[in-house]
Amino acid sequence: MRSFKTLLRSVVPAVMMLALALPAAAAELVMIDREGCGYCIAWKKEIGPAYPNTDLGQFAPLRVVNIREGEPDGVSFARPVLFTPTFILIEDGAELARIEGYPGEDFFWGLLEKMLKENTDFVGSS
Question: Looking at the 3D structure of the chain, how many domains does it have?
Fold first, then answer.
């Protein structure tokens, strides 16, 4: 019994430290697109290939959803999506913020980084 108590005294603090070190719920970026949407096609050509390789893309992985499908299971949007593309930042299934439309490659990265910094614990890209 004594060795069990000793084991508990050493394991419990280690487990608590590990739990405190775990990151908060993961953020996700949901892109709402539509077939034939020129701005969606431009985003997929200009940003899409690089996105998963960036700090932003690794922090908030992308999920592409067709506008006809509506909200993905387990996700709640703050308001209806009217424009494509719309980029919705999701955490714990709820919308935190969104970018409506695609402002072009020069502006998209900055808007996304600003949205992540203001709504999550993202500290910035390297």
Answer: 1
Q: H/E element holding 9?
A: helix 2-21
- The predicted model scores a pTM of 0.79
**Range of the structural domain that residue 114 is part of:** 25-119
In a domain, 9, yes or no: no
What CATH number did the domain enclosing 38 receive?
Answer: 3.40.30.10
Edge-to-edge strand list for the sheet holding 62-66: 62-66, 27-33, 86-91, 94-100
End-to-end CA distance of the chain: 51
> Is 99 within the bounds of a domain?
yes
Per-residue pLDDT of the chain (126 residues; tens, 9 = 90+): 666 555 445 544 544 444 444 444 589 999 999 999 999 999 999 999 999 999 999 999 999 999 999 999 999 999 999 999 999 999 999 999 999 999 999 999 999 999 999 999 999 865
